[in-house]
From TrEMBL, chain A:
InterPro entries recorded: MsrP, OxRdtase_Mopterin-bd_dom, OxRdtase_Mopterin-bd_sf, TAT_signal
Catalysed reactions listed for this entry: L-methionyl-[protein] + a quinone + H2O = L-methionyl-(R)-S-oxide-[protein] + a quinol; L-methionyl-[protein] + a quinone + H2O = L-methionyl-(S)-S-oxide-[protein] + a quinol
PANTHER family assigned to the protein according to its UniProt record, in alphabetical order: PROTEIN-METHIONINE-SULFOXIDE REDUCTASE, PROTEIN-METHIONINE-SULFOXIDE REDUCTASE CATALYTIC SUBUNIT MSRP
Cofactor stoichiometry and binding remark: Binds 1 Mo-molybdopterin (Mo-MPT) cofactor per subunit.
Gene designation per UniProt: yedY_2
UniProt protein name: Protein-methionine-sulfoxide reductase catalytic subunit MsrP
PROSITE patterns: TAT
Oxidoreductase molybdopterin-binding domain: residues covered: 81-237
EC number: 1.8.5.-
GO MF annotation list: metal ion binding; molybdopterin cofactor binding; oxidoreductase activity, acting on a sulfur group of donors, quinone or similar compound as acceptor
Automatic annotation (TrEMBL), chain B:
Compartments where located: Cell membrane; Membrane
Protein name listed in UniProt: Protein-methionine-sulfoxide reductase heme-binding subunit MsrQ
Domain spans labelled Ferric oxidoreductase: 55-168
Role noted for this protein: Part of the MsrPQ system that repairs oxidized periplasmic proteins containing methionine sulfoxide residues (Met-O), using respiratory chain electrons. Thus protects these proteins from oxidative-stress damage caused by reactive species of oxygen and chlorine generated by the host defense mechanisms. MsrPQ is essential for the maintenance of envelope integrity under bleach stress, rescuing a wide series of structurally unrelated periplasmic proteins from methionine oxidation.
Length: 302, 216
């Protein structure tokens, strides 16, 4: 039904906004829209079938709202996402605190259907809406010495119960980071929506990172700060358990997490008897990203 | 007797007339309900994990409940001893279901991964150890076994329950990504309930070593 993002696609192949808007009409209009036959259905071999919006918005890890999978859906409505500003600092030409709309500006919002693989060995397929991170970085101008990009999530305990009192078991803000070449890679995106809907709070509204070849926790949510630096930045899960979560955290079925195997994954959405699936190297994006890690021992740099 | 003990004693009188078989029947209802909800979509988008987790939690709760029976007798004169076997057997059944859900629905009999998990993942090793240790207890849970082993040996063997409860609680903590109040609470309760037995256990050990030291 949907086409996955593959590197041999050109800009022309990216689902245009009008089409996914049409799809929403299809969902809304049902048979009537079908009858007109006006909707082009891009199909190709090896298509990914996205999870439903309900699945994507009801099963989340977002510890700012609690450690349970349903906590974010339960509590994230408290979060105010407008106005929203992102501070961009460090080794950039135009540092500053940008209102979100100003930062997005005239960037085209495109749809990318990506596999999403959690370090806990479950997976989904998600139709994101957003733009490539490199477009934002180009806007602010990355300086020559910058080697890494650091990200921070909002800290607002009064709206994020997981950041309060005895439930708070992480040193906030939640921090993530990428090497500059990973950040500039065309697969790496900043997402502002799913299924053409504005990003649900529990999924990291109003704007989050999506790095499809890395474990889900790298795709930091509700971003308020982006810093260009020359040294590998500290990242939250690595700070908590450095032997379990590396800086890179690339999806790799051959390098197990110390407490569980990464060889296969539970596919979310198929019910009680859903077939387990073999995990793919770099989550299926090996052709696109393997060259980033040439010559690196992925067991050492896990 | 204090007031609590008077109440406990009175309840014990009522409980004496209650047969044990309904306990087994009641105990089977939650897993049956869980399976029904899982099949009909009532457990959310990741039903396997919910079933697995819930059965494990219930097993731990039953184990802890089993450990409460003797202290209730001692401190509150509440005699629930006749239900202890049922509670223990149900706890094992829940552990078994928990294991089966993991093997069949979660890891789906990928034996290579299963074996690697048991050997290489400490929390699974700990959980499996608890399960294996529980097998001899179930095998000797019938009246005849008590007679054959002798009450003293049987009692000593069933002290393994303490180890199983603690392993279960540790297994629960180890599979989590961060410390949570819930998992620490279970371990705290386990340590407390096993701790109540310590004076007796230590006393018995001391008596035994004294015996060895005494000549003749």
């Amino acid at each position: 039904m949907f086409k996955p993002f593959t590197p041999d696609l050109t800009a022309a192949d990216v689902t245009p906004q009008s089409m996914w808007l049409n799809r929403r009409q299809l969902l809304a209009g049902g048979a009537a829209a079908l009858a007109t036959g006006s909707i082009a259905q891009p199909t190709r071999a090896g298509t990914l079938t996205p999870n439903t919006l309900e699945e994507i918005t009801s099963y989340n890890n977002f510890y700012e709202f609690g450690t349970g999978k349903s906590d974010p859906a339960k509590y994230a409505h408290m979060l105010t996402t407008s106005p929203w500003e992102i501070k961009i600092d460090g080794m950039v030409d135009n540092p500053g605190t940008y209102p979100l709309q100003e930062l997005i500006g005239d960037l085209d919002i495109e749809e990318r259907i990506y596999r999403f693989r959690c370090v806990e060995a479950w997976s989904m397929v998600i139709p994101w809406n957003g733009f490539e991170l490199n477009k934002v970085l180009d806007k602010v101008g990355v300086q020559a010495g910058a080697k890494y990009v650091a990200f921070e999530t909002l800290v607002r305990p009064e709206e994020m119960p997981g950041q309060r009192g005895f439930r708070s078991n992480i040193e906030w803000p939640y921090r993530e980071g990428l090497r500059l070449d990973e950040a500039m890679h065309p697969l790496t995106m900043m997402a502002t929506g799913i299924y053409g809907e504005p990003m649900a709070n529990q999924n990291g509204a109003p704007i989050r990172l999506v790095v499809p070849w890395k474990y889900g926790f790298k795709s930091i949510k509700s971003i308020v700060r982006i810093t260009l630096v020359d040294k590998e930045p500290p990242t939250t899960w690595n700070m908590l358990q450095s032997n379990e979560y590396g800086f890179y955290s690339n999806v790799n079925p051959e390098v197990d997490h110390p407490r569980w195997s990464q060889a296969s994954e539970r596919v979310i959405g198929g019910g009680l008897f859903q077939q387990r699936k073999d995990t793919l190297m770099f989550n299926g994006y090996e052709d696109q990203v393997a060259s980033l890690y040439e010559g690196m021992d992925l067991r050492e740099f896990f | 007797m204090n007031r609590v003990q008077v109440i406990g004693h009175r309840i014990s009188g009522g409980v004496r007339k209650v047969p044990t078989w309904p306990v087994y029947l009641l105990g089977l209802l939650p897993p049956a309900w869980l399976l029904y909800e899982g099949i009909t979509g009532g457990l959310g988008v990741d039903p396997v994990k919910v079933m697995e987790h819930q059965l494990g939690i219930w097993a731990l709760q039953l184990l802890l409940a089993g450990l409460c029976i003797t202290p209730l007798m001692r401190f509150a004169r509440l005699n629930l001893l006749k239900f202890r076997r049922a509670v223990g057997l149900l706890a094992f059944l829940y552990i078994l279901f928990h294991l089966v859900v993991w093997l069949v629905l979660d890891i789906q009999l990928r034996w290579g991964e299963i074996w690697a998990d048991i050997v290489k993942r400490p929390y699974i090793t700990v959980g499996m150890a608890a399960f294996v240790l529980a097998i001899p207890l179930v095998a000797t849970s019938w009246n005849g076994a008590v007679r054959r082993l002798g009450a003293a040996t049987w009692g000593k063997l069933h002290q393994l329950t303490y180890v199983i409860v603690l392993l279960g609680a540790v297994h629960f903590i180890m599979q989590e990504k961060v410390w949570t109040i819930e998992s620490l609470l279970y371990l705290g309760l386990g340590i407390g309930l096993v701790g109540l037995r310590l004076p007796k256990l230590v006393g018995r050990l001391r008596a035994r070593s004294d015996q060895k030291l005494t000549p003749g």
